[in-house]
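subagent[fold] <- orchestrator: predict structure for attached chain, return tokens only, no commentary.
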Amino acid sequence: MKLLNRLWLAAAFVSLAGGVSAQSIADRFIEAYSAAEEQLQNREYKAAVKGYDAVERMVASVTPEQRDSLAERFGCDAEELIDGMSYNYACALALTGSKRKALDRYERFVDGTVGKSEHYNYEWVAEEDSDLDCIRSDKRFKAAAARLKEWCDYRHILRQAAPYCRQQCDTLPRWRYAAPNDRELVRVREYFKLDSIAGAGDELSKIKNILRWVHDNIPHDGSSSWPEERNSIAMYELCKREGRGINCRMLAQVLNECYLSMGLKSRYVTCLPRTMVSDCHVINVVYSNQLDKWVWVDPTFNAYLTDDRGEMMSIEEVRECILEGRKCHLNEDANWNNRSPQTYEHYIEHYMAKNLYFLQCRSVSEWAAESNEKQAQPCRMVTLVPSDTYSSCKPDGRNAYTADAEWFWQSPYIE
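subagent[fold] -> orchestrator:
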């Protein structure tokens, strides 16, 4: 029902449980905040207001040493901790009829979010949460929600982007894809027994089977340390040996090598927001000869999208659906680490809508693409940008830019 506004605050609760002295300021903060949250959930609104107020007084009275302790533990300063609880505080105040104070708190939540953190459910906090109904028509609320919209309504932000346009691309690098008879890719195919994993079905079933196998056998861990050896076999063995996962970029590189080894043209794509605050996401595209287009596959979430006919969709097609306000379909078994099912609303409308503003690929798709040896080579990163952004981009020896989507998503079989 309620919202924990800061992802770092949620993470801190998990990491601190039983982990520090009962006398620490961080523990006292968590204990007091948790009590207020429980009162809010139990609809004890007046008690919750008193609880949040007590938390704020506690934080306001900390010593310089305690402020340093809070900053070290939570990764933010004391004022940001108060920002982080201000949304639920506003809900509690609104539910007790304290409209002016609720507006004060809502504005603090918004101003502590804009430019500083990301929020994946703008609609809920600005339009849908019934706890705030008594202040929703107030001009202060509307002004604050408008500020939030320009920062956190990712579908709105994407729709503001200028369209792509055709351009001269003579100075851009050629797309190149490693052949399946590459010695290392042959080793990948044999090591993972990919012919068996892919199965005997058609091309699209093989694409889905390999996607599912990578997702099921290598966990995702966005906070994991970067592996020293960055090739599919080494990363797989590392995860099995240490019982760990790898981040989305590494997972996409594993899947990329698997597809290439099977003779499928593939890239991994860094999907970037308009403004980088906390994260981006990396997925794959693989070229389907059956459909004559690149199709979206995401090993972090075992995810792909289909249209109303059940046909797998490309990044460009999904992006157009978001821009036009149409819906496509997320596969029913999309999930995170086989623990958290994904919904279309969260995965596409909230998360990926944020991350489809810029799209970036290496011009060469190959084995161990981000090994130290390959990184030292002059392979260029190519970024697809909205046309109104292109003039401000500054290409160099390693980075190229284009607003030409047709060129960016050209068939890998064009000579």
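orchestrator: received. Logging for downstream: Residues 4-22 have pLDDT under 50 and may be disordered. The first strand starts at residue 176 and ends at 177.
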